[in-house]
């Protein structure tokens, strides 16, 4: 994936898929939620893996474009979208493979 400066995935999960991603160029900040927001910055060459229960928002907060590589298993079937409202994450909809990606 390519990430122009300031782009974000928005809060989402990966349906029933576990996955991993690695930053190939630039840096990305991943925000996760477990009752409060936690942030980690993944510089070029750094990555992370996650299980199917993982909800996050990935953002290019750097001053240059970023590139990342993502893998999912099983194949990514759907993503639930969330918004942070009133101090909690609220599901706002589901995107299915083939709809927008």
From TrEMBL:
A Pfam entry, by short name: CDO_I
Classification via CDD domains: cupin_CDO
KW Metal-binding (keyword) present: yes
Gene3D superfamilies xref list: Jelly Rolls
GO MF entries: iron ion binding; oxidoreductase activity, acting on single donors with incorporation of molecular oxygen, incorporation of two atoms of oxygen
The keyword Iron is assigned to this record: yes
Binding, Fe cation: 12, 14, 56
SUPFAM superfamilies reported in the protein's UniProt record: RmlC-like cupins (SSF51182)
Keywords: Iron, Metal-binding
Family of the protein in this entry: Belongs to the cysteine dioxygenase family.
Protein name: Cupin 2 conserved barrel domain-containing protein
Organism: Nocardioides currus
Lineage summary: Bacteria, Bacillati, Actinomycetota, Actinomycetes, Propionibacteriales
